[in-house]
Every structure is written in C-alpha cells, then in structure tokens.
From TrEMBL:
It is a single-pass membrane protein. Its main location: endoplasmic reticulum. It is found in: Endoplasmic reticulum membrane. Its EC number is 2.4.1.117. Belongs to the glycosyltransferase 2 family. CDD domains: DPG_synthase. The chain crosses the membrane at residues 258-277, 341-367, 379-395, 448-465, 477-498, 551-568, 575-594, 622-639, 651-669. It is an enzyme of class 2 (transferase). This is dolichyl-phosphate beta-glucosyltransferase. It catalyses: a di-trans,poly-cis-dolichyl phosphate + UDP-alpha-D-glucose = a di-trans,poly-cis-dolichyl beta-D-glucosyl phosphate + UDP.
Length: 818
C-alpha cells in the first residue's frame, strides 16, 4: 500500500531523535482542541525527564472550521506541536494512519481530541509498556478502571454489545478495544498502521488484530475516563463499525483457507453431480428407499412449520397411529430452518442442497479443527480433512443419510471441549458447548453418541500418556461439561421426553446379528471407490450400499501403520492410533467371524451392546470414527514430510500417500431417472376418491422396502394421508422399534404377494379381516401401481373387495365408497 497523501506543515522542524510521539486525530475540533493541546503540552513539558524528547502531531482530517488555526497557534508557542493535514475528511482510521506514519517516536501514543482519558494516565501505560509488551492500551472495562462520567444508557449498551462482538470475531481476550488512549512500540505501530486498510472507527480493532497475529503482546491497562460533550460518534457509526468488522473478518481469511473451502464444495458437487443434473427427476438407487423417506421428512417438517403444527408428530404416515418425528431422524436442526426453501423449491432440491452443502461444511469444519489444533500446514490440513469428510463410509452414507454426512457441528464440539481443558473461560465455553450439543441433538443423536465415544477413546489414551496435562485439564473440563449439561438438558428435555415416552415412541431398534463389520471390510475397497471399487465384494461384506461403514482399503491401513511406527514418539500420534484401532475393533460387533473360517469370537462391543442408547446403534458405524483419526494422522505425516529437507524422502513419502489415497477416491454417486408419479396422483384425480379424514391406501402398503408412495404424497403436497410407511415405530407389547407401521393381517398378506407372487385362498374370513383393516385405516381408495406380480395383487384385491378394480390414470383403483 502506498503512503497516505497528507501534508506536514512543519517540515522545516529539525529532525531530532524523539522518544514519544503523541498523535491526535481531529475533525472540526476548534472548540475542544485548544484545551486538549494545552493539557498535553503542559504535562509533557513538566515531565521531560520521564518521557524524554517528545512531539505532538495533530492530524486535521478535512476540517471546515478553525481547527488548523488552533494547531498553528499552539505550534507557534511550542515548535514540537506539528500539523498534518488531509484535504478531505475520510474518518478516524485514515487520520490515525496519517499521523502514526508521520511520527518519529520510539513510542507512539494515540489519544482522542476530547481527552476523555486524561493525559496523566500516560504514566500507567508507560509503566506497563516498560514491562515488555508491544502495546499498552487504556481500558474502561479492566478491573480498576474508573468511569467518572458515563455515556447515555443506550450508547453504553451498544458499546458493550460491540465489544462482545469484537472479542468474538477479531481480538479475543481484550475487554475494551475502543478506548481512544493507546501507547505503542513506535516501529511496530508504524508497521501495523501501514498495513491497515480501514478508514473509520474500526481501525482500533484492525491494529490490535495485527499485533495479535504478529505475536506482539498487548497489555490492557485500567484508566480513568469521562464522557465528553460533543462526541463525534453518531448512531449510524455503530453500523459502520459492524460493516468494517465484517470487511476485516473477510480480509483476515487466508487465501489458502478460501481455496480449501472452495475445493470441498467442488468435491461435494462432483459427488452429487448425477442428482444435480435434474434434482427433481433423478434418484440415487443406492439410497434404496431412503431418498423418498428423507424428502418426506423435509416436506412434512415444512408443512408443519407452515401450518404451525407440532413438528414432533404427524399422522400423514402410519395412519391412524401416526409417526413420532422426534424418534426418527428428521433432523429438525436442518428441516426447520430450511422449511422456506422446501416450500419454495420442493423437498427434492432442499435435500440435494442440504446434503451437498452439509458435506462441504463438514469437511471445512474438520479443516478448521486440524489447522487450529493439529498442524499449521494448510496442504496437510486439507488432505486430512478431505479424508475425514470423504472417506468411503462417509460416501456410502452420502447416498441416503444426511444425519451421518452433515456433521459440521462435531469438529466444533471437539474444539470447544479442548478449549475447556485450557481452563481460561470455563463458564462461557461451557454455555457455548451446551448450545452446540443442543443443536447437534436436532441434527442427529446417533452421530453425537458415536462422536462422544470417539472423544472418550482419545481422551482416555491421551490422559494415560500425559498425566501432567490431565491433572491440569480435568477440573475445568468437568466444570464446563456440567455447565453445558445444565444449559442443554432443560432446553431439550421436552423433545427427548416426547422421543422416548411420547405417542408412537419405541424402546430400541433391532438390526440383526450381522450389523457389525467383517474384519475384511476394514481393508477392502468400497463399491464407490473410483479406481479400486468392487460392488460385488463390498456388498458381500456390508449390510447394503448405504452401510459400507469401513472399506478404508489395505494401502491406507498400511500407510497409517507406517506413520504410527515412524512418529511413535508423539503423544498425539499414539492417542489417534489407539482411537482408530479401538473404534475398528468395536465396529466388529458383539461377535465377529474370523476371516476364512467358520469360527466366531466375542467382541468388546458385547460389553455395551445392550446398554441404553447403544442398543439401537448399528455397530458397524463405529468404524466411521476412524475417518477423522486417520485424517489427522495423515495430516501430521504430510506436515512432517513437507518440512523434511531430504528430497528423496519427500518423494518416497508423498508417493506412499498418493498410493494410499488414490484407490479410495470416490466416484460420483450413481443416479438414475426417477420413476414417474402416476397420473392418478399427479393430475389430482385422487381428490374425487377421498373424503374428509380418509386415506389413500397403496397396494402393497409402503414400508422400508417400497416407499414410492411417500414420493406420491410429497408430489401431491401432502394433501392425503397414508397407512403404513417408512419410519421407525413401535411393534408389539414390548414396543420394539421397526422400520414401518405395525403390520395388520391385510398389509402382511399383500406384502407377501408382492414378494412371492403367491396369494392365499381368499374366502369370507380374509374378506372380513380386510373390511376391518380398511375401516381401521379409514381407507377411501385402494391404488395398485404397475409392478412385479401386479396381476396376482390385483386378483387378490378384487376378491378382498368383492369386485374388480378400475384402470384410472395409470393405476388400478378400488373406490371403497361403492
């Protein structure tokens, strides 16, 4: 940046060494400036033995009154008073920059023209500066400060709010940035002001931020202060300061960080490229029926919000019993704030946006955590975060489970917990942690549970390895966690009560005996790996394409092992290695089969498999904890390689990293043309078949294996209700969780026919049972779309109803009002 344009009217003053420069910005200060200059000159003149040679620079910032004449008169009395002029008014920041850059002092004091802080307070600042910091700033908020005359109440409140925002955004730890009385190390002040860009009141924040980033200590010194009449701060200046802070925040972001976030976004868009080609008419087939379910979740939440209905419950599915939405993965933390988008653009586009942006935000959050806590090398942090967010299990869940890919809060929670260990602001950090936990609960409870398990594994290992750190950290950590719980639990108590004890709540969800990972899955390749992917192998080793929870590939496992061996002396590496290995072993389940044999052995998961909350977890998902642990190990290794002076070692190391990562680079998710909604639904023909409080009954009833009817319902604007459905609900007297409504005789029989094509002999008993079930569902019309075994289904329904169906709008229809 070129030097600011200004005129120093005292250029003929002999150049002598100066110990102290006092810079006073002034704009139309004719009335107040004279007494201020008299006070400054008198005080410095009486204390020359203490402060040495001095000068006073008054910067006239385009005044239109007699400000310059006042300075000229003062200069006539004492040649050490100098006038620096700017032809136009640009603001306090511009004036200070001109004055500081024109100064020659070994120390530089900046003070406001009203001298709200008396010049005598310079002694306290000089004493603090002599103790080693690069700046000593006057503070009205530090303990010991004296406010002799207050501002108006509204201005004080605005000032406190502004200081809180400034501490949060720019200079944490400084209570008062805006007190206009600051003493700087001269050369460092000139360097900081030369690098500054702001013209207005935000200059104080920009300069202090420069000192902080340069590692130059700043001491905050309590001072006397009194509000002076004629303040130049106007109400609109508060808004301008906020705008300057925003600009400062944007400029403070490193280009490498922006490039990393942009790259994560491009990676997420590339992964979902097939859907974005036509989001309303493309389907991810490897999501099975989950895309239909999640679009319905977004649609029903938006509908509840629009009509001010309870967002925790609905009867649009599972009629008449309904669905406990809090007990399902509805992600109210996303579906509620995105409700306007859903209402405007539809649930298909909203889901695509949420999953794409959420995955990119998750990668950015891991990147931020790794940069702040693990490595400073941006390239290493980017690689580690990319592995954490785009590892094979994350890509698998990206087909269908936004609750397991939109995880941007998890790194933030981890970082806040680490802050608590430092013990500096336990109460504030505890409150923030509680609010973060609250929000994550509404994003996904199972990911939070698994993340907590991972944090416990890491903390346990680190505590054993570094007892000195543990001794200092455990008290503030426990206190902060207690504060966080006290903030979070009262706010989430009602939703959690509804989830576990409300209507259609359930006790646990059973996933079968093979929900754990095979040991081979940990070293094999996922189906969506671009280079080494093998659908046949991956499907044989996983529950389904959405639950490929391991599949890190043997090259990455081998590389991680080599990194741990090479960097074993580092405590962080040991703790991360333990976390990854422990999570991998737990993910094998309560019993796992020894590869290439028929033998099984107990796994450690058996110790917690039947414990509350853990009983509903798909244990194979625990291997997802390995992704960020491996990412951080990789980041540490890459940073170490980047600093290695031996080119040969760098080549070998980076080649090994590439060989481990290239095989697991994900291919874009499979996308196909979406099945069309039958004209009977799409053109509204159905409306003439359903009366008030009646339902439309698809044949067979929708469930986790066939939820296309949910797409019909969202396409129709949720104007009709469905029995059955795809959601978690209770079954039987023990209220065990299942993935659909409690089956009835007729729904079970129709489902069996849709799978086998074989119908039972239908007589009066079946017909009577069907009439009872239709009445229970309040069925107005039965709808059979084209599908496998449709003839067998149609014939069965003809017999149940007692008359043949009618072909209407691309489906077979039985009007139950006839």
């Amino acid at each position: 940046m070129s030097a600011p344009q200004a005129t120093d009217v005292m250029e003929d003053v002999p150049v002598v060494p100066v110990d102290l420069s006092v810079v006073v910005p002034a704009h139309n200060e004719e009335r107040r400036l004279g007494p201020t200059l008299d006070a400054i000159v008198g005080y410095l003149g009486a204390n020359e033995g203490r402060f040495g040679e001095w000068e006073v620079l008054v910067v006239d910032d385009g005044s239109t009154d007699g400000t310059r004449d006042v300075v000229t008169a003062a200069s006539g009395r004492d040649r050490r008073v100098r006038l620096v002029t700017s032809p136009d008014n640009h603001g306090k920041g511009h004036a200070l920059r001109l004055g500081v850059l024109a100064s020659r002092g070994r120390r530089v004091l900046v003070t406001d023209a009203d001298l709200a802080t008396p010049i005598e307070e310079l002694e306290a600042l000089a004493k603090a500066l002599a103790e080693g910091p690069s700046a000593a700033i006057g503070s009205r908020s530090a303990p010991g400060a004296t406010i002799e005359r207050h501002q108006s109440r509204i201005r004080e409140l605005l000032g406190r709010a502004g200081n809180l925002l400034i501490r949060r955004i720019a200079v944490p730890g400084i209570r008062d940035t805006q007190c206009g009385f600051k003493l700087f190390h001269g050369d460092r002040a000139r360097e900081a002001f030369a690098a500054s860009r702001l013209h207005g009141w935000g200059i104080d924040v920009e300069i202090l931020q420069h000192f902080r980033r340069s590692g130059w200590p700043v001491a905050e010194v309590p001072v006397r202060w009194a509000h002076q009449p004629g303040s130049k701060v106007r109400p609109q200046d508060y808004a301008r300061v906020l705008a300057e802070l925003a600009a400062l925040k944007v400029r403070s972001v490193r280009p490498a960080d922006l490039l990393a976030v942009a790259a994560f976004l491009l990676m997420a868009v590339g992964l979902y490229a097939g859907r974005w080609a036509d989001p309303n008419h493309r389907y991810l087939p490897e999501s099975l029926q989950d895309q239909n379910q999640w679009e319905w979740f977004f649609a029903v939440t938006a509908d509840n919000v629009a009509h001010l209905r309870n967002p925790l419950f609905t009867t649009l599915q599972g009629y008449p019993d309904g669905v406990n939405l809090m007990a399902n993965t509805v992600m109210l933390g996303l579906t509620v704030p995105l409700a306007p988008v859903t209402l405007l653009l539809g649930p298909a586009i909203t889901l695509a946006l949420a999953m794409t942006l959420g995955l990119a935000a998750t990668a950015a959050a891991w990147y931020r955590l790794i940069v702040k806590r693990v490595v400073g090398h941006r390239g290493a942090a980017f690689t580690g975060a990319a592995l954490a967010a785009f590892a094979p299990p994350m890509v698998s869940h990206a087909n269908a489970h936004p609750n397991f890919t939109v995880l941007f809060m998890i790194p933030l929670i981890i970082e806040r917990a680490l802050r608590l260990c430092g013990g500096e602001r336990v109460v504030r950090d505890g409150v923030v942690l509680g609010l973060m936990l609250l929000y994550q609960i509404f994003l996904g409870e199972e990911p939070l549970l698994l993340a907590s398990l991972g944090m416990v594994l890491f903390a346990g290992a680190y505590a054993i390895l570094r007892r000195d750190v543990t001794k200092a950290a455990w008290r503030p950590l426990l206190k902060g966690l207690a504060i966080g719980a006290a903030v979070c639990l009262p706010l989430v108590a009602l939703p959690l009560y509804w989830q576990f004890f409300g209507p259609q709540s359930y006790k646990s969800v059973l996933h079968g005996d093979h929900a754990g990972n095979s040991p081979l899955a940990l070293v094999s390749f996922a189906g969506r790996s671009l280079v080494a992917g093998n659908d046949e192998t991956a499907n044989a080793l996983s529950l389904n394409p959405t639950e490929q929870n391991a599949f890190y590939g043997w090259p990455l496992v081998a590389l991680a092992f080599a990194i741990v061996i090479r960097l074993w002396e580092h405590t962080l590496v040991k703790a991360l290695a333990f976390t990854a290995v422990a999570a991998a072993v737990l993910s094998l389940g309560p019993r796992f089969r020894i590869p290439l044999s028929n033998s099984t052995v107990p796994g450690p998961w058996a110790l917690i498999a039947d414990k509350p909350l853990f009983e509903s977890v798909i244990e194979g998902r625990v291997a997802m904890i390995c992704a960020p642990a491996l990412g951080m190990l990789l980041a540490v290794a890459i940073e170490r390689l980047a600093r290695t002076p031996n080119i040969g070692n760098q080549f070998i190391g980076f080649t090994a990293v590439a060989a481990a990562l290239i095989p697991i680079v994900p291919a874009p998710l499979k996308s196909v043309e979406r099945a069309q909604v039958p004209a009977f639904i799409a053109d509204g023909t159905w409306t003439s078949y359903i009366g008030k409080d009646e339902t439309l009954v698809p044949i067979p009833l929708p469930d986790s294996g066939n939820a296309e009817a949910l797409h019909w319902q969202t396409a129709a604007g949720l104007k009709f209700k469905l029995p059955g459905g795809y959601f978690n609900g209770p079954y039987g007297s023990e209220r065990i969780g299942i993935y659909t409504a409690s089956p009835r005789y007729t729904s079970s029989m129709l489902r069996d026919i849709s799978f086998t094509g074989v119908a039972p002999v239908i007589g009066k008993n079946w017909q009577a049972q069907a009439r009872a079930d239709f009445a229970y569902w309040k069925a107005g019309v039965l709808v059979l779309p084209p599908q496998q075994y449709q003839d067998q289904l149609r014939q069965a329904v003809d017999k149940l109803v007692g008359r043949p169906g009618t072909w209407v709008g691309g489906v077979w229809v039985w009007d139950l009002h006839d």
